[in-house]
Backbone:
């Protein structure tokens, strides 16, 4: 690996002031997407007020976080809006439902070293940050102990050593949190580190940011991906056609021109997208935005999200309608993550 110089050590330190100082030597001020992140709604009353909805208050153990470009796609005055339901906390989150647990995927058991999780052959998942730009109520990592996983500068040497020693690994998946919450500078540093491992040829980014804040797709990010010898894959996370607007499509077009493979995963969510018509529209809209549907995930049984669950029988019925109405390449694979299995499990 490239020797960890003082600067690169600092880039990965958790010292925020330092990160901002480092970021500022490219941008001279925070990037516009970072300002948008800072201006997000973090309070239920503010959210309801912005949408002309009557106030209601309840306690939640997972804060709300809604960035304004996403807020703009929510219909005012509609409590049943499918985007609002993904971000608005509910008193139901505190219900204690048997089988719904804090860490449904037992990820701690699969950690090879801090931040590095391997469950499947040939690919590893790297948790690079615990931050997100939006708090999705159904998130399976809503209770995730990020502090235990987020690599520090010292951990990076171990991660790279681990990757070098295992020649069966050819793909690194950047995950979180949301990996695109990292600054362009930090992301570039990580990609450069991965490039030093000869058998790694692919970097995959799993992110909701290009959809919730399309301004995140900066020129610098595109340049980093174009300049890298690694093949880049972006897996977006879009659950409903209403999440796709022109700004998102433009961001995707820029990525596609940079030769980034664009795939989407959705989570099947009750009263949000458990409807063949909605999912079929989503597939067609994704295609128009140069994205192919990849996975449709059954909900992971995380505590606080039971009210989003869709029964398997219903999920299978939706899939038969999708198969009968869409070309094969627009039909996502319906999967569930079962701890200990060698891949996601088809339903
Ligand atoms: C989901 C997941 C992957 C990616 O699986 P694909 O089927 O290749 O998309 C890789 N590693 C871990 C730990 C995962 O949870
Ligand atoms: S962006 Fe992803 S990791 Fe973050 S809350 Fe949403 S689903 Fe969870």
Residues:
């Amino acid at each position: 690996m490239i020797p960890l110089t003082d600067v690169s050590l600092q880039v990965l330190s958790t010292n925020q002031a330092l990160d901002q100082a480092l970021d500022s030597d490219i941008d001279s001020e925070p990037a516009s997407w970072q300002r948008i992140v800072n201006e997000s709604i973090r309070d239920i009353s503010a959210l309801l007020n912005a949408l002309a909805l009557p106030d209601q208050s309840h306690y939640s153990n997972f804060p709300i976080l809604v960035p304004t470009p996403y807020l703009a796609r929510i219909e005012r005055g509609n409590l049943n809006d499918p985007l609002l339901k993904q971000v608005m906390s509910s008193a139901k989150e505190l219900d204690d439902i048997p089988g719904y647990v804090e860490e449904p995927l037992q990820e701690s058991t699969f950690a090879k070293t801090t931040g590095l999780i391997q469950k499947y052959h040939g690919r590893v998942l790297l948790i690079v940050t615990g931050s997100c730009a939006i708090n999705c109520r159904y998130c399976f990592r809503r209770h995730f102990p990020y502090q235990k996983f987020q690599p520090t500068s010292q951990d990076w040497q171990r991660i790279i050593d681990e990757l070098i020693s295992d020649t069966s690994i050819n793909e690194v998946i950047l995950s979180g949190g949301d990996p695109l919450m990292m600054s362009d500078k930090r992301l570039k540093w990580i990609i450069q580190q991965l490039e030093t491992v000869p058998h790694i040829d692919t970097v995959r980014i799993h992110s909701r940011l290009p959809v919730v804040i399309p301004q995140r797709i900066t020129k610098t990010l595109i340049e980093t991906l174009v300049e890298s010898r690694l093949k880049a894959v972006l897996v977006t996370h879009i659950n409903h056609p209403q999440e796709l607007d022109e700004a998102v499509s433009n961001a995707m077009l820029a990525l596609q021109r940079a030769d980034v493979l664009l795939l989407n995963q959705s989570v099947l969510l009750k009263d949000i997208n458990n409807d063949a018509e909605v999912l079929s529209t989503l597939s067609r809209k994704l295609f128009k935005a140069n994205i192919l549907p990849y996975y449709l995930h059954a909900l992971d049984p995380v505590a606080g999200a039971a009210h989003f669950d869709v029964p398997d029988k219903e999920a299978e019925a939706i899939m038969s309608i999708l198969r009968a109405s869409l070309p094969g390449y627009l039909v996502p694979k319906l999967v569930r993550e079962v701890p200990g299995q060698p891949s996601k499990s088809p339903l």
Summary: The chain is about 35% helix and 15% strand. Residues 117, 119-120, 123, 125, 173, 343-344 surround pyridoxal-5'-phosphate (ligand 1) (CB under 6 Å). The beta strands are 111-113, 116-120, 123-127, 171-175, 202-207, 231-237, 261-267, 292-297, 333-336, 345-346. Residues 15-93 form one domain.
